[in-house]
Design brief:
The chain is of the alpha/beta class. The chain has one domain: Spore Coat Polysaccharide Biosynthesis Protein SpsA, Chain A. Helix content is 31%, strand content 21%. Strand 5 and strand 6 form a beta hairpin. The termini are far apart. The mean pLDDT is 95.
Length: 191
């Protein structure tokens, strides 16, 4: 059984990543933070228990980027909103449990990822909630099709994102993991 961990990454260019953080510390500083955070996260999450795949954006630039480790497979995120892109990543991975995380979660550890994969042995989907109403991880069993309405009518980047996502998959066995903070503003950088 192959476990796949997909890390969603963007090419760290000023004005293209972490723009809300950039309004607080400058776009160059936000891009610098994201570049170093992503590299540290990839190093921290490498583990023989799962295969890491980088979901890159923008597509062509991300596939050719020298910033990310060359030994990790890359797939383009493609067009659409966050739900379109996450759904495409979950559907496109090999059969077996798949977890997807963003690259802007400093507190994530291998233990968090191992718990998520462990939960997918008992539940069809797993989510890691964030204090802002969103989530830092979504995981799914990939032995059959994903729930048909997954990510439909989700108000992304709002306090309703997790609740809307859960509402899009009624009657699906779901569990929640530890709450972790993602970084959107300078206030999120404080412990």
């Amino acid at each position: 059984m192959q476990r796949t961990l997909v890390i969603m990454v963007k090419e760290p260019r000023p004005g293209r990543v972490k723009t809300r953080l950039g309004r607080d510390i400058g776009m160059v500083g936000a891009a610098w933070w994201f570049r170093h955070q992503t590299r540290a996260l990839i190093r921290k999450l490498r583990d023989p228990r799962w295969q890491i795949v980088l979901a890159v954006s923008p597509d062509a630039e991300g596939l050719a980027s020298r910033i990310w480790p060359v030994d990790l497979p890359r797939v383009p995120q493609g067009p659409g909103d966050l739900g379109d892109r996450m759904g495409r990543m979950l559907r496109g991975m090999p059969k077996g449990p798949v977890c997807l995380v963003g690259a802007d979660i400093p507190g994530i550890s291998r233990a968090h990822i191992a718990r998520a994969f462990g939960a997918l042995g008992r539940y069809r989907m797993v989510f890691g909630p964030a204090p802002d109403g969103g989530y830092w991880l979504v995981g799914a069993q990939r032995y059959s099709a994903l729930p048909a309405g997954l990510f439909r009518d989700v108000r992304w980047s709002t306090k309703h994102a997790l609740a809307d996502t859960l509402a899009s998959i009624p009657n699906c066995r779901v569990t929640l993991l530890d709450q972790l903070r993602d970084v959107d503003t300078v206030a999120d950088l404080k412990p």
